[in-house]
């Protein structure tokens, strides 16, 4: 789990506290990255000599402006994580390798440990999921005064995310 390295050197009482710390740090980092990257890009595109004149020339509302770009970020953020949750390419590749192993039958040379890992369900990186959801809510709260429709996209996105996770967990339990 790559996201767990953020909190590796901190001392936590329980593993749950450790995961909570990872989720909090990831949520803040993702929020700052998503909320401020477009703003900095607009500042760079303003092409002026000083920061104060850049802020005056900043395109907030026009075509190709900050709010139009953030509108597309909200649409992408509402539909892309649930789609990637359903179409997990790593898990589909694992299912394909499992099918090849079953076709070989007893003639395979795989160790028991590798075979066990091949038959595990999909990986759930809970701190990454919590961080993504917290980032989505913070982003909607941050831009809601300027883009009120962002709240609707956030509600739709979180609902889709919930249902795709629910279906994935039910499929895993069905396999057992």
SSE blueprint:
Layout: H1 15-46, H2 51-56, H3 66-86, H4 89-104, H5 112-118, H6 126-143, H7 150-175
How is this structure best described in words?
It is a single chain. This protein has one domain (2-175). It contains seven helices and no strands. The chain has helices spanning 15-46, 51-56, 66-86, 89-104, 112-118, 126-143, 150-175. The longest helix has 32 residues, at 15-46. It is elongated. The mean pLDDT is 82.
Q: Would you kindly provide a brief summary of this structure?
A:
72% of the residues lie in helices and 0% in strands. The protein has 176 residues and is mainly alpha-helical.
Features:
72% helix; mainly alpha; 176 residues
Beta fraction: under 5%
What percent of residues adopt helix (DSSP H or I)? over 70%
Shape by Cα distribution: elongated
> How many DSSP helices?
7
How many individual domains? 1
Q: How far do the termini sit from each other?
A: 24 Å
SSE-based structural type: mainly alpha
């Amino acid at each position: 789990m790559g996201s767990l390295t953020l909190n590796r050197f901190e001392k936590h009482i329980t593993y749950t506290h450790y995961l909570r710390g990872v989720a909090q740090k990831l949520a803040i980092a993702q929020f700052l990255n998503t909320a401020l990257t477009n703003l900095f890009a607009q500042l760079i595109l303003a092409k002026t000599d000083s920061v104060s004149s850049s802020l005056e020339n900043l395109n907030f509302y026009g075509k190709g402006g900050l709010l139009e770009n953030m509108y597309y970020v909200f649409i992408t953020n509402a539909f892309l994580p649930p789609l990637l949750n359903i179409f997990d390419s790593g898990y589909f590749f694992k299912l394909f390798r499992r099918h090849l192993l079953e076709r070989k039958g007893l003639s395979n040379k795989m160790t028991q440990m590798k075979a066990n890992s091949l038959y595990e369900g999909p990986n759930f990186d809970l701190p990454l999921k919590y961080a993504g959801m917290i980032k989505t809510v913070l982003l909607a709260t941050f831009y809601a005064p300027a883009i009120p429709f962002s709240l609707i996209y956030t509600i739709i996105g979180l609902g889709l995310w919930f249902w795709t996770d629910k279906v994935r967990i039910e499929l895993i339990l069905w396999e057992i």
